[in-house]
Each structure stands twice: as structure tokens, then as C-alpha cells.
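[Q] Does anyone have a clean C-alpha cell version of this?
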Amino acid sequence: MVPLAIAFLVTALLYASVGFGGGSTYTALLALAEVDYRVLPLLSLACNLVVVAGSTVRFARARVTPWGRALLLTAIAAPAAFLGGLTPIAKQGFLALLGTSLLFTALTMMLPVAKRPEGEGERGRVARYAPLAALPLGYISGLVGIGGGIFLAPLLHLVRWDSARAIAATASLFILVNSLFGLAGQVLKGGEGRFAAAVDLGLPLLIAVAIGGQIGSLLALRYLPQRWIRWGTGALTAFVGGRLLLNL
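[A] Here you go.
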């Protein structure tokens, strides 16, 4: 349990540094530790909630969250995340989908972030269609225990949806709400027994990600360049995803 808690702390530190929750990597680490795959999304989504709750509040206090458009994306994704949490999935399919998601996540972390030119009129023409992506992202979030923001943010940067800070704030809110709805679906699907197993295993991990998330936020604000953090996080994610797929 101690090595796993340390791995969770480091993961939370890295992901919080770039504004994400780390749910996909938590799930993969648990799978590599041979934890029952049906419990994995419960733990990962709960850890997501712990990590991104603080960043969501900070963005809101700083008044950088574009509430109207952010809530639209979240409202579309949340019911799909709930349905994803309710959907049964076989172990091999779950692990294959998770490993593929991790490798795609690593790619998005290592790509350069496109900056939107100043001025509302400079927004990309296809940015208005961004809500169409919210539905599948929400479903995958609930199904495999991730928040979905790691996929949403690069898409929003690509279509020049808003400023970098506004996109980070939106991704944080997206992860928070999707994790909550996905967790509700997973709890209903698994019943009391699976929820009790997750609680027994999860407390040390939740403490670890709470500590790591706070340290990550501090490092991002004061010390480490964002490029270094993103590349480090991408490398970790690619390694874990590759290990997971090789073990299938």
C-alpha cells in the first residue's frame, strides 16, 4: 500500500501542476497493482474529486471561469458520465480502453499548447461546435474512471475556444462534475459491497492525492516551467499506459 500511495502522490503532484486530476493514471496504477478492475473507477474518480475541487474553487475566485460556456459543456457531459458509470464492461475491454486512453493522453500532454490571439473575434470558427465532443468524453469518463478534461483541454486549445486560463478553468470544472456523476453511476452499478471495498482501500490514497495536489499547485505557481511539468507528466502517463497494454 505504501508504494501505491507514493505513486498516487507523485501522480497527483504532476497532474495538478497542469490543471488536471490524474484519474486515468490512478486507474492504471491500480490495475498494475492487481486491484479488482471493478473497483478501480470508484477509487480513481474519488481521487479526481479531491485533486480538482481546490483548483475549481481557485479559478472561480479568480473570475477566469467562462461560466456560461463551461456549464454548457459540463451539462452535456455529466449525464453521459453517469451512463458510462452504469455500463458493464469486461475486464479485457476495460484495460484495453484504459491503456489506449493513457497513450492518447500522453500525446496530448506533450503537444505544444496553442494560444488564442487576443480579442473575442479571434476565436476559431469551429469553436462553437466544441459541445459536440462533450457527450463522448463524458461517457468515456464514467466508463473507465477518468475526468475527461485531459482530452477536452487540447481540443479547446486547437479550436481556439478561449484563453489558456479560461480553458484550464473549464477543464477543471469538467473533471469535477464528470467525476461526481461517473462515481454515482459506478456506485449504483457495483452496489454496497464494491463501494465498501473501495472505501477500505481508498483512504490512504485519498490522503496521498490531497497532499500531492497541493504540492503540485504550489510548484506550478512558483517554481517549475509548465513545459517541463507537461513533458514529465506525459512521460509518466505513456509509461504506465504502455505497461498496461503489454500486460493484456
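[Q] Thanks! Anything notable?
[A] Confidence is low (pLDDT under 50) at residues 117-121.
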